[in-house]
Amino acid sequence: MSMKDSADATLIEDTLNGDQSSFAELVRRYQAAVWGTVHRILGNSSENEDAVQEVFLRAFAALKKFDLKYPFGPWILRIATNYCIDQLRRRRGRRVQLWSELTEFDQQRLLNNISRENEVEAGGMEGGEGYARIAQALLDGLNPKYRAAFVLREVEEKNYDEVAKLLGTSEVAARVRVSRARAELEKKFRAYLSGLKRKERT
């Protein structure tokens, strides 16, 4: 156990013994990491601050189940990831446009990743405006589990072992989710290009 993990374990034990300041210290230590995960998966959302608070509330409620043999960081980030997946599922019900909630940088990263194998075909697009027109179709309706895995892997550039831990699944399952997300996004991208070509011919 590292010194940091040992210090975290002490803070957790003190929290369970009723010391509120110890949990406040855990929040201070991991707030930036939780915020980063929430922001990456949910995008630029007004709900992010509430989401971070909810993640720590859930962690506090589940703290007595936490196994002190393991590091606290991956555990709370898994809670954050699962919470974000739940929020994405609710958003689908509200038909919120997910793409618009990503940062411009992340939009470009995702588009570049998807269009990597379609560079020649995509060359006819009108620059940023052309990308903006297809943006909506790319992420709308994507299964929240696949979207979360794809964002963790392709936007945050986490390795598959980290993605698996954050999603609470196996590395094989994480690879499958990323692969399915990529395949679905590429399918939508090609469908857009096909539509574009048909318009050019008319």
Describe this entry's structure for a reader.
The chain has 202 residues and is mainly α. It folds into two domains: 1-95, Rna Polymerase Sigma Factor, Chain: A, CATH 1.10.1740.10; 97-202, no CATH class. The protein is built from ten helices and no strands. It has helices at residues 3-16, 20-42, 48-62, 72-94, 104-115, 119-122, 127-139, 144-155, 160-167, 171-201. The longest helix is centred in the last third of the chain and has 31 residues, at 171-201. The radius of gyration is 20 Å and the shape is elongated. The model is unreliable at 119-127 (pLDDT under 50).
Short description:
Helix content is 77%, strand content 0%.
Shape: elongated
What is the radius of gyration computed over CA atoms, rounded to a whole number of angstroms?
Answer: 20 Å
- Proportion in β-strands: under 5%
Low-confidence stretches: 119-127
Average predicted confidence as pLDDT: 77
How would a crystallographer describe the biggest sheet? none
- Report the helical percentage: over 70%
Question: Could you say which structural class the secondary elements and strand pairing correspond to?
Answer: mainly alpha
Counted beta strands: 0
**Helical region count?**
10
Distance between the termini: 67 Å
Q: Could you outline the blueprint of secondary structure elements for this entry?
A:
Layout: H1 3-16, H2 20-42, H3 48-62, H4 72-94, H5 104-115, H6 119-122, H7 127-139, H8 144-155, H9 160-167, H10 171-201
Helix pairs in contact: 1-2, 2-3, 2-4, 3-4, 7-10, 8-9, 8-10, 9-10
